[in-house]
Write a structure and sequence with these properties.
The protein is built from ten helices and five strands; from the N terminus they run αββααβααβαβαααα. By secondary structure, the chain is of the alpha/beta class.
């Protein structure tokens, strides 16, 4: 959880679904958009974007901003404050588990992420926007995003691993990661040993298993569409059915 006096008030990011800082119509603004939590089984999918002037980009480079996954939590927290000071605007969209489920059940996760990306792009007031693309087909993903853009539409550049190659996207990845981590921490403060929230984490899956065994349902802050959780729910449902059959005899 972030605890840094140099940060702008992170509570406004934590407790509001979206946050928009004052921006500018300056056509020189460059945008970057990335997500955090796409593969998680617990907590929201967070999409974040920033817009920044060209001279601000050089400042990001001087600070050593890079992909959030390559940074320690302390480094991310420090950079978060720097990014908010340098950015002309930033916007965060949190997509909750039930929303993720509603798209994943129809193989539409990429489309949902494109909707989130477009929402962010619509609010960061940039003339050019670089996006970390999740789709193997870059043109298809760009067209998916463009369907949901307002006018005037900025120039969109979809790039694989843009969080590693583009410093503005790297900055957006840090914002997304900070917000996502704080959302997970809110859940952890209530339910304690939930682990990282990812299905590869044994502690996370042990927590979910205990919950499903006890309540015969998924936690409201977990994604029922994720295969490991689906299997647990189906297993519990089968046990209940067998129990009912046995009771009948």
């Amino acid at each position: 959880m972030v605890n840094n006096n140099n940060l702008l008030d992170i509570k406004s990011v934590r407790y509001k679904d979206k946050l928009l800082l004052p921006g500018t119509a300056d056509g020189a603004l460059i945008g970057g958009v990335d997500e955090a939590g796409r593969g998680s089984v617990i907590g929201p999918l967070v999409v974040a974007g920033i817009s920044i002037e060209k001279n601000g980009i050089s400042q990001l480079l001087k600070l050593g901003i890079r992909d959030s996954k390559k940074l320690t939590p302390t480094a991310r927290a420090n950079f978060f404050g720097n990014i908010l000071q340098l950015a002309n605007s930033f916007y965060v969209s949190k997509i909750q588990c039930h929303e993720v489920d509603s798209y994943v059940f129809f193989n539409g996760l990429n489309e949902l992420e494109a909707i989130g990306m477009a929402e962010v792009i619509n609010n960061i007031r940039a003339a050019r926007v670089y996006v970390d693309a999740c789709d193997i087909n870059l043109e298809r993903y760009k067209n998916s995003i463009k369907k949901y853009l307002w006018t005037p539409k900025p120039k969109i550049y979809c790039v694989h691993h843009a969080d590693c190659s583009n410093v503005v996207v790297s900055a957006a990845s840090i914002v997304a990661k900070i917000v996502r981590d704080n959302e997970v921490q809110r859940i952890r403060n209530i339910y304690h040993d939930i682990g990282s929230g990812y299905p590869s984490d044994k502690k996370t899956m042990f927590f979910i298993k205990k919950w499903v065994t006890r309540y015969k349902a998924a936690p409201h802050f977990a994604r029922k569409s994720w295969r490991p959780l689906r299997i647990m729910l189906e297993s519990e449902s089968s046990k209940e059915s067998i129990g009912l059959i046995n009771c009948a005899y």
